[in-house]
Amino acid sequence: MEKLLPSNKIITEKAKGNFVFIKKKRYFDLSLHSGVLLLGHNHKVFQKTLNELRKNYSLTNYQNKNIRSMILKYIKKYFRNAYDLIFCTTGSETVIKAIRISRALSNKSKIFIVNGSWHGSVDQTLYFSKEDLKPIPLSSGISDDIKKNIIILPYNDLEKSKKILDRNYKDASCILIEPITASLPLEQSKNYLKFLKEYSSKKRITLIFDEMVTGIRTTNGSVQNRFNIYPDITLAGKAIGGGLPISLIIINRKIFDRIKKLKRKIFFGGTFSGNNFSLISCLNTLAYVNKNKNLVRNIINKSKILQDKLNNFSNKNNLDVKVYRFDSFLRIIFSKKNIKNRIARDFFEKKNKIRITKFTKYLYSKKILYPKNGIIFLSSTLTSNNVDYLVKNLSIALKKCFK
Ligand SMILES: Cc1ncc(COP(=O)(O)O)c(C=O)c1O
C-alpha cells in the first residue's frame, strides 16, 4: 500500500475539477478547501475572474457600489429576508462582528451558543461541552473572563434548551447557531430552529444563523430558505467567494433600522473587507450559480447517490458505520447506531481512531484524499463515473476497516 504522507508533507502541484496532483499523480479531493470550491478547482469562472482582475483592477479602498448592489440582489435570492450586507474577509470575523452587533443593540453580555456548532477561530465561541453543558475551551490562551458570558444549549434538545433559555435570557444578547451542523449533518433540526426563532422573537434576543457551509449549496439556497425560518442575522462565506476570501454579515430590515438608530456607532472596518478582488470573484460566482439552476441540484443528487449506495452496502455487510448527509455535504459516522449529537459522534471517532487512520491510508492508496475534518464535499464537475469510482473504493475501504 502506498504510504500516506503526513498532511504537512502533501504538496499539491496543481489542481483541476475534483482533483489535486501530488507527485504528478491525480487524487480525488473530497474536501475542496473545506467546501469553498462548489465549482471545483480552477473552474472557468475562477479563471475569468483572474483575467478580469489582471486587466482591470487593483486594490483600492473605494468599494464599487454597483458590484455591491449586484451582490446584494443575488444574496436576496439565497437568503430571502436579507436587507443589507456588511462585508468581511473570514467567517471568524463575521462571528465576532455579529456578536458585537447583538451586544450593541441589547447592552447585554451573555451569548447562547449551541453544542456541535462550529464558528471558527473566535475566542467567544471556541468551546465545546459534554452532557453537563459546562463550557470547556478548545484552545489554550482564552481568557477565563470569556467563559462567564457563554451559555451552551444542547442541539435539537428542545425541552432542555427551553429551561436554559428561561433561566438566562434576561442577560443574553443573542443565540448563535450553525442551523445544520457540518460536524453532524442531521435533517431533523427544523423543529428546533423553529423553536429558537419563536423564542428569540418573543424575548427580543438576536437570532444568528451561521450559514458559512450551507449558504448557496442547499436546496433553495440556504437552510433558512429551505425551512422558511429566518434569523435576524446570517453569516455566509466559503463557496460564495468562489475561491477568494470573502464573508458576509447579512442583516434583516429590523436589525438595519435598529443599527441606524444607535447613538454610538458599531465598528465594522477591516483592511480587506469588501476588497474589489473578492467582490468580483463573489459576483461572478453568484451569477454563474444563479444562471445554472440545476448546478446545486446535481451536486445534491450525486451526494445522495453516494450516501445511499454506501449505506446500502454497509447495511448488507453489517458494517458499523453510517453516512449522514444534508443536501450537498456528507459525513461518515463510525457507528451504525442513530447518533443524535456531537458528543456521541466524538465518542465513536475516538474509539475508532486507529481504524479511521487505516481507512484514510487505504483511500490514499486508491488516489482519494479523505478530508482531515471528515466533511465530504463534492463539486459540480463530478461525473457519474467519478461517483461510481468513489462508491466502489469507499465501500471496499469501509469493509476492510469497519467489519
Ligand atoms: C460554520 C462555520 N462558521 C465559521 C467558520 C469560520 O470561518 P473562517 O475559517 O473563514 O474564519 C467556519 C469555518 O470552517 C465554519 O464552518
3D architecture notes:
The protein is α/β, with parallel strands linked by helices and 403 residues long. It has two domains: 7-42 and 294-402, Aspartate Aminotransferase, domain 1 (Alpha-Beta Complex), CATH 3.90.1150; 61-291, Type I PLP-dependent aspartate aminotransferase-like (Major domain) (Aspartate Aminotransferase, domain 2, 3-Layer(aba) Sandwich). It is 42% helix and 16% strand. It contains 14 helices and 16 strands. It has helices at 32-35, 44-56, 65-78, 91-106, 144-147, 158-168, 190-203, 223-227, 253-261, 276-291, 295-316, 342-351, 353-365, 384-402, and strands at 14-16, 19-22, 25-29, 84-88, 110-114, 127-128, 136-137, 150-153, 172-177, 206-210, 233-236, 247-251, 322-326, 329-333, 368-369, 375-377. Strand 10 (206-210), helix 8 (223-227) and strand 11 form a beta-alpha-beta unit. The radius of gyration is 21 Å and the shape is globular. The mean pLDDT is 94. Bound molecules: pyridoxal-5'-phosphate.
